[in-house]
Specification:
The chain is of the alpha/beta class and 417 residues long. It has 2 domains: 224 residues, Vaccinia Virus protein VP39 (Rossmann fold); 109 residues, NAD(P)-binding Rossmann-like Domain (Rossmann fold, 3-Layer(aba) Sandwich), CATH 3.40.50.720. It has 13 helices and 17 strands. Strands 6-5-4-7-8-11-10 form a 7-stranded mixed β-sheet. Strands 14-13-12-15-16-17 form a 6-stranded mixed β-sheet. α5 packs parallel to α6. The longest helix is centred in the last third of the chain and has 21 residues. The radius of gyration is 22 Å and the shape is globular. The N and C termini lie far apart (64 Å). It is an enzyme of class 2 (transferase).
Length: 417
């Protein structure tokens, strides 16, 4: 078998970061009429490049197959909407964004973020490959192209006289198999004095908090500040600032510009985080070894809890149908023998089944009817929002369970009268 090569620097990949066995595509929810059909399971094996230290998976499905009809709609999370609104306020103040600023977002989803710019009469353009998701944005008045982004589309837009003064990409960089073409496209599309902001889960947090469930086939790459700086520099882009944000268990928001621009000076935050990553060993290969042991510990903890609960005749239901939950359940070998079902607010997922484990996806209202003893929160990054929404489970003594970074069982807080 030929070893894969790094999608950033083309070095042969020989160093394992984490091997999660075989798993189906994490967002390939099974329709009821297909439950008697088989699923394809692919290796979920993450490598770390010995040269540029980019953590990554091999490519088994094309982006067209994965993202052209997508089940994720950003606007179903109230906390994510608030995150987007706050971001728009911050960058509008910082960069004096107004009606003369051309704002574009790559992977703009259902217009969850661009809507806040549009309300301020800022001209916006969304680029979203999933036609079903883009249609929602268009219906809400957000100009959206149904396209995959790369140099070809960037050249087309530039030829039409459209460049971005402010270019955004939230949780898209990890989803790109042709990383060099994508970053080169941003370089082309960015106006001479423009800037880029991109958000993605921070590899430092993934390692520190055993967030292995954020590894799935739709996420091709896992970035540290160290590795993303090299990728951008290779294409003539310079990072000038970084924010650490709480989303997705701890993410980075990087700020970049053309490397020959003197408009943006490097921040102290950028230098401080680079030092902290070095202190954690992320600038050398040894810093990535040993992660697999913490993954195995999390698996044992979850299985021990679920088996014990079943032996006590206690019912466990899950909350959410996120991709991370599918990685967790498939890696741990959990099925309906241990968890009754899951629930999700997204009506596009309700009535379907989780890939691999085939847990049925119900409406969240089912929890009040079923009255489970435990609710296992799969999107643990939305823990506070979910606990608040489901505080009523305390009426029958129900408890919450979170599996990452370690198993935690807790009761909802009492509500003040």
């Amino acid at each position: 078998m030929t070893s894969p090569v790094c999608r950033s620097c083309w070095t042969e990949l020989t160093e394992t970061f984490c091997d999660l066995g075989l798993s189906p595509m994490a967002n390939s929810y099974v329709a009821p009429e297909n439950t008697d059909r088989g699923e394809i399971f692919y290796p979920l094996h993450a490598y770390v490049c010995s040269e540029c230290l980019l953590v990554q998976l091999g490519e088994f499905e094309t982006p067209e197959e994965i993202f052209s009809d997508y089940a994720y709609f950003s606007s179903y999370s109230s906390s994510w909407l608030e995150h987007a609104r706050t971001y728009v306020e911050q960058v509008t103040r910082r960069f004096d964004i107004d009606s003369s600023t051309r704002v574009m977002e790559i992977a703009s989803n259902d217009g969850y973020l661009l809507q806040y710019f549009a309300r301020n009469d800022v001209p916006v353009l969304g680029i979203e490959p999933a036609a079903n998701v883009a249609e929602v944005a268009r219906a809400n008045g957000i100009d959206t192209l149904v396209e995959f982004f790369g140099t070809k589309l960037a050249e087309k837009l530039v030829d039409e006289g459209r460049q971005a003064d402010h270019l955004i990409g939230n949780n898209v960089l990890a989803h790109v198999p042709d990383l060099n073409d994508f970053v080169a496209g941003m370089k082309l599309l960015l106006a001479p004095d423009g800037r880029i902001t991109m958000e993605f889960p921070h590899l430092l947090q993934l390692i520190a908090h055993s967030q292995f469930d954020t590894i799935y086939h739709e996420h091709f790459s896992y970035f540290s500040l160290h590795s993303v700086t090299q990728v951008f520099a290779r294409h003539g882009l310079r990072l000038f600032d970084v924010d650490e944000v709480s989303t997705h268990g701890g993410s980075l928001r990087i700020y970049a510009c053309h490397d020959d621009s003197d408009r943006y000076a490097p921040s102290e935050h950028l230098e401080a985080l680079a030092r902290r990553e070095s202190e954690s060993g992320l600038d050398q290969l040894d810093g990535y070894r040993g992660f697999a042991r913490s993954v195995e510990r999390t698996k044992r903890e979850l299985l021990s809890f679920l088996i014990s609960a079943r032996e006590r005749n206690e019912r466990v239901m899950a909350y959410g149908a996120p991709a991370k939950g599918n990685t967790l359940l498939n890696y741990c070998g959990v099925g309906r023998d241990l968890i009754d079902c899951t629930v999700d607010r997204n009506p596009h997922k309700q009535g379907r089944y989780l890939p691999g484990t085939r847990l049925p996806i119900e409406d969240p209202a089912f929890i009040a009817t079923a009255k489970p003893d435990y609710v296992l929160i799969l999107p643990w990054n939305l823990r506070d929002e979910i606990v608040e929404d489901l505080a009523f489970i305390r009426e029958w003594g129900g408890q919450f369970v979170t599996p990452v970074p370690h198993l935690e069982i807790f009761r909802p807080a009492a509500v003040d009268q």
